[in-house]
UniProtKB/TrEMBL annotation:
Alphabetized SUPFAM superfamilies for the sequence: NAD(P)-binding Rossmann-fold domains (SSF51735)
UniProt GO molecular function: 2,4-dienoyl-CoA reductase (NADPH) activity
Keyword NADP attached: yes
Annotated InterPro entries: DECR2-like, NAD(P)-bd_dom_sf, SDR_fam
Name of the protein described by the UniProt record: Short-chain dehydrogenase
Signal peptide annotation: none
GO terms of biological process kind: fatty acid catabolic process
Lineage: Bacteria, Pseudomonadati, Pseudomonadota, Alphaproteobacteria, Rhodospirillales
Annotated keywords: NADP, Oxidoreductase
Length: 280
């Protein structure tokens, strides 16, 4: 899909890059010539991901154990990353989520999600932005949100609140920083199976298949499809896209919204019967 040197020379930091979609984006970035930095809380997961990614792609991966809820820890990590070389891209990918009836959420449960998704993404973005602006370094931020950042969703309310906040941050800073060489965009994925998401968000085994039935394409997303979009959006070729959010959900949220979308269930015979009768 791309020239193999699309991201050559770029140094890219992905939060939560040791697992799931973060791993898949990192793998594609390496294939396209980038140098990768990944962070997460579990250093053993990062070490395993580094070994696997380097073996798969021949690229270079730097890892940092860092809890993005801790602003001081992020600052320390960014100092260490900048000491090697300033990154050119930040991908806000790390997240926390679970399903629950909202009236049963404790304050700590609300904070657990907001602290990772909203505060963590803000600390990382502001920490990188401050450094980039001071150096006049051109850069880009890509945040992985969800389609329910604008529709909202029952049973994942803290996540919906946090992702909506990350979207607001993206659009606000796209204007505040765009003129100084920093553009910010977001991707809103529909369902892309990962162990991290599925073990927390699939309530019963018989519901796992449901995710693939809620869009007109009748399937879930492939990681490569998301990784290619994420590559385009951080590449120089997308340099005029700023403050945008690109949905990649097979049409899922629109299918839930359109008044007459339920007519997908009609058969050919139903449609034939609805045609006006020819006047004789
Ligand atoms: C109700 C819960 C809960 C649950 C935790 N809590 N899980 N409450 N239902 N299922 C409550 C706990 O009881 C506790 O409150 C508080 O939350 C903090 O719990 P901890 O286990 O101490 O939290 P912590 O160790 O900080 O872990 C954070 C986490 C965990 C979010 C709870 O799941 C995590 O580490 N997640 C990271 C990865 C992840 O979530 N990936 C999925 C991303 S998918 P009390 O009051 O009891 O002390 C995604 C979008 C998917 O974001 C969209 C799909 C289409
Ligand atoms: P995942 O594999 O569980 O990824 C979450 C990552 O975030 C993990 O690597 C985790 O590593 C890291 N993380 C969590 N808390 C952290 C913290 N406090 N500090 C640093 N890192 C932290 O889930 P995923 O499905 O790939 O999700 C990736 C992104 O896509 C998320 O933003 C999610 O909201 C979004 N998304 C996913 C889907 C989907 O269908 N999968 C759909 C829409 C949006 P540690 O636990 O080691 O810290």
């Amino acid at each position: 899909m791309f020239q193999t040197d699309l991201l050559k020379g770029k140094r890219i930091l992905i939060t939560g890059g040791g697992t799931g979609l973060g791993y898949s984006m990192g793998q594609r970035y390496l294939e396209l010539g980038a140098e990768l930095v990944i962070c997460g809380r579990r250093t053993e997961v990062l070490a395993e991901a580094k070994a696997k990614l380097e073996a798969e792609t021949g690229g270079k991966v730097e890892t940092h154990g860092c809890d993005i809820r801790d602003a001081a820890a992020i600052e320390q990590m960014l100092d260490a990353i900048w000491a090697v070389r300033a990154p050119d891209v930040l991908v806000n990918n790390a997240a926390g989520n679970f399903i629950a009836r909202s009236e049963e959420l404790s304050p700590r449960a609300v904070d657990a999600v907001l602290n990772i998704v909203l505060h963590g993404s803000a600390y990382a973005t502001l920490g990188c932005g401050r450094r980039w602006l001071a150096q006049g370094h051109k850069a880009t931020v890509l945040s992985i949100i969800t389609t329910y950042a604008w529709t909202g969703s029952a049973y994942v309310v803290p996540s919906a609140m946090a992702k909506a906040g990350v979207l607001a941050m993206t659009r606000s800073l796209a204007v505040e920083w765009g003129g100084r060489g920093i553009r910010l965009n977001a991707i809103a994925p529909g369902p892309f199976p990962t162990p991290g998401a599925w073990e927390r968000l699939v309530p019963r085994a018989d519901m796992a298949e449901t995710f693939g039935t809620k869009n007109p394409l009748g399937r879930v997303g492939n990681h490569r499809e998301l990784a290619d979009l994420a590559s385009f959006l951080v590449s120089d070729g997308s340099g005029y896209i700023n403050g945008e959010v690109v949905t990649i959900d097979g049409g899922e949220w629109l299918m839930g919204a359109g008044q007459f979308n339920f007519l997908n269930a009609l058969t050919d015979e139903d449609w034939q019967a609805l045609k006006p009768k020819k006047k004789s």
